[in-house]
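lol ok so funny story. i was supposed to be doing the assay writeup but got distracted and ended up predicting the structure for this chain instead. priorities right. anyway since i did it might as well share w the group, maybe its usefull for someone
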Amino acid sequence: MTNDAPTDRGPVFDGVRIGRPATGALIDAGYRTVLDLPADLAVLFALHGVGPSAIRRLAEARGDRR
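and the output, tada:
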C-alpha cells in the first residue's frame, strides 16, 4: 500500500517562515534555497500559494533593499 498524500513540508523555506502553501509551491517549482530564487521575486506571484507576505519575507531574508 502506498501513501499518495502530499508530504507536509512545513511553513519554513530555507529558514524563512513563509507558510505551508508558499513553501510547497517553491519546492514544487524546483527551488531549494533562498539563493536559488530568481532575481525578480515578483515572478513567484505566479505560483499558487505565494503571496505578498511570502515575497516580502523572502526579499528580507535575501537582503533586498526596496
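The CA atoms of residues 30 and 36 lie 9 Å apart. The longest helix spans residues 52-62.
back to the writeup now i swear
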